[in-house]
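User: Sequence in, structure out. Go.
Assistant: Echoing your sequence, followed by the structure tokens.
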Amino acid sequence: MKIAIISDLHLDMNSKYVDENLLPVFIAFLQEKQFDILVIAGDISDHVTSSLSMLDAIERQIDVKVLFIPGNHDVWVKPEESSWDSYLQFAQHPSSLIGNPYVLTDDLVIIGDMGWYDYTLAAKHASKEDIDEMLTDWGDNKYTNWACDDLCLTDIMLQKIERQLQMHKDRKVIFATHFIPYSSFVPTGNEYIDWDTCNAFMGSAKLGNLLDDYKNITCVIFGHTHDRHGITEYHQKKIICTPLGYIGERHADVFRRELEKSLIILDV
């Protein structure tokens, strides 16, 4: 069985960047590949309505099972909207892994949920004041509405994830999330972004600790960072981090070329 994996497509923003609707390009690209399941680990677009519409189009036009978990951008909302409502809309979609593990065989299952961040991946020297100041301008702070803070939301996500892992503790697990679970995969500093502080918003070390408690997890899929790590081994697990990201960040003029670099097909 072959599982195709990608994340952080940002089809709306990338389409604007190249002045072309890239959804048909993505679908045509997928139609040329050979795989049985497609896992998209979040961030198709900046709103639930467009992300669900794109998921529907992908499902209609490729003859494989699509599995999806939302990313932070997918649950961005207008001021009068609720990110929980968006999250629940995703949970009800046929592609959703939220509370809906996908059993591949008697001894192998794909489990997934969005996750969130709790500032535990920030550099140790990043102060609470530094994080609070950076949070003021962070997109999620402006465009999500959870009616709870980041730490509370992360705890809710961890509880939901652990319940699913408990239910399938006797199976091997491929786990998919959007946010980074291990500090070894956070972005590093550059002249434009203070990643030492911004990594506060990249994931949760608590999630990594939880995943390490379950030795039956053989593979962990995530995105959010736009750094591509491909397939690597970490903590006795196969790690797959294969985001497309913003085309502008990579100075690429051909969307398809970036897809070729990003899509990973895993044999299981």
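User: And one key feature?
Assistant: The chain has a mean pLDDT of 95.
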